[in-house]
Structure formats: C-alpha cells, structure tokens
C-alpha cells in the first residue's frame, strides 16, 4: 500500500476497520495506524464499519468513523459538474512485478467509453438487467460498479467466496439466450 499510495501523497484515506477471509473476521485498526504513521500527507482517515464497527473502539490518530464523517452533511441532490473529456477520474497502479508499481491516471471520457463497450457490447448488459459480481470489494472495481448502474442495470455485489460453504451450488455458465 505504501509503495502505491506513497507516490500520490493522499490527503484523505478511506479504510475498512476489518475484513473477512474464509469465514473469519480480521481487524485492521493496528495496520491502519502503521500506514498513517508512514504516510504523513494523510490529514484525515475515514474508517468504514465492516466487521465489528467503530462504536466504542479507539481509532487511529487522525481518524474518524464513517457515521461521524457524514453526520454534518445532510442527504440531498448531488451536484454534477461537467469536466473535459480527459479530466482525471481515478488512479490505478501497475502490479509492481517489474519494479515499483507505477501510477496510471485514467480519464473520465475514455473510462466511460471503455466500460460502456465492455458492458453493453461484450457482456450484453441492457436496461433492467441484473448483474452479479462475485469477488471481494476491491478499490479497482468501483468504476465497474458505477458503470453497471450507468447501464440502468441492477447490481448485486457479493463480497467473499461463493464456494466457502460446505455445499456449493452448481450454476450454469451458459448464457441465457435473449428473446
């Protein structure tokens, strides 16, 4: 994480207080504390409740719980601002297999076109379809989730392994033909 985020010097960091693996919960607050010590540019860390929550727990220095973070901001309409085609949308990183991970900035226009192509043409996602994503909730999937919603599809995202339970359910991998 430090190899990647250290390059872009983030000011705000969002982190889950824990995660699940193989049916067992793991706490991340100590690890988050270590990361914050090594990333001095972070002025605020927002801790999202995921396994045990944040209520009554000691959070790392510079941290705030999600509920406290959103409390002063009442729900309302989202203001959208038009931006140029190549305006930065997000940063992804190379794997780091051939040296230090490299920052790759993705633009809004190219991302929208690529995702619409992949979802509408390659995956045949249409208005009213249901899209199921079976994987953990990694940061690099956020843009795909938003793009599914942009296709007017309903999204079901399952965090974890569908095969963790003792009895697995068989599913057909053959796509259902459209009529």
Quickly list its features.
179 residues, alpha/beta, 2 domains, 3-stranded parallel beta sheet, two-stranded antiparallel sheet, 9 strands, 26% helix, 23% strand, disordered C terminus
Can you walk through the features of this model?
The chain has 179 residues and is of the alpha/beta class. It has two domains: 69 residues, no CATH class; 71 residues, no CATH class. The chain has five helices and nine strands, in the order αβββαββαββαβαβ. α5 links the parallel β8 and β9. The longest helix is centred in the middle third of the chain and has 15 residues. The protein is globular, with a radius of gyration of 19 Å.
What is the structure about, briefly put?
Helix content is 26%, strand content 23%. The chain has 179 residues and is α/β, with parallel strands linked by helices. The strands form four sheets. The chain has a three-stranded parallel sheet. The chain has a two-stranded antiparallel ribbon with strand order 2-3.
